């Protein structure tokens, strides 16, 4: 049972904190898939670019950049939003490199595009946390990994 909140504590205690599932992490790291990376631009200095290179070159994933500027990155056409990715494109994982304040909207879009794109999981990068959005995604049948990075998890699983 969740502890009662203290006076003045405004946290939402209606849901327990999300816990990452090692089985899900291992599956996402070892199963070749297409990852839509929200926040990936052509800026090679950004963490999203380096991690996306790792996902592609080390793990063998196809990367689809999703960024408001719809820039090409890593040789792939970019899209401004998940809804702009063409029909017939399978996207198994949506990887979020965005400010936590933007997560809820993107998770709702992923849920709305789930059936059309075949989305199965969301990966919220290190420092990207939204418990309510994670709960909505899980309720919609999506696997959720939150507040970690594939490059951190990869050696842990000795994949």
From TrEMBL:
It comes from the Bacteria. Gene3D superfamilies: NAD(P)-binding Rossmann-like Domain (3.40.50.720). Residues 29-128 form the CoA-binding domain. SUPFAM superfamilies: NAD(P)-binding Rossmann-fold domains. SMART domains: CoA_binding. InterPro entries: CoA-bd (IPR003781), NAD(P)-bd_dom_sf (IPR036291). Residues 1-21 are annotated as: Disordered. This is CoA-binding domain-containing protein. It comes from Ornithinicoccus hortensis.
């Amino acid at each position: 049972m969740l502890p009662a909140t203290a006076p003045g504590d405004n946290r939402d205690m209606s849901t327990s904190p999300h816990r990452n599932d090692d089985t899900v992490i291992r599956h996402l790291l070892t199963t070749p898939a297409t990852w839509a990376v929200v926040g990936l631009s052509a800026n090679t200095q950004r963490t999203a670019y380096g991690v996306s290179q790792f996902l592609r070159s080390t793990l063998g994933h196809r990367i689809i950049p999703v960024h408001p500027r719809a820039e090409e990155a890593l040789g792939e056409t970019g899209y401004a939003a998940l809804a702009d990715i063409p029909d017939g494109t399978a996207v198994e994982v949506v990887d979020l490199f965005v400010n936590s304040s933007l997560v809820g909207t993107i998770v709702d879009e992923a849920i709305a595009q789930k059936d059309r794109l075949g989305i199965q999981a969301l990966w919220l990068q290190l420092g990207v946390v939204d418990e309510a959005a994670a709960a909505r995604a899980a309720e919609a049948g999506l696997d959720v990994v939150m507040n970690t990075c594939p490059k951190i998890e990869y050696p842990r699983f000795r994949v």
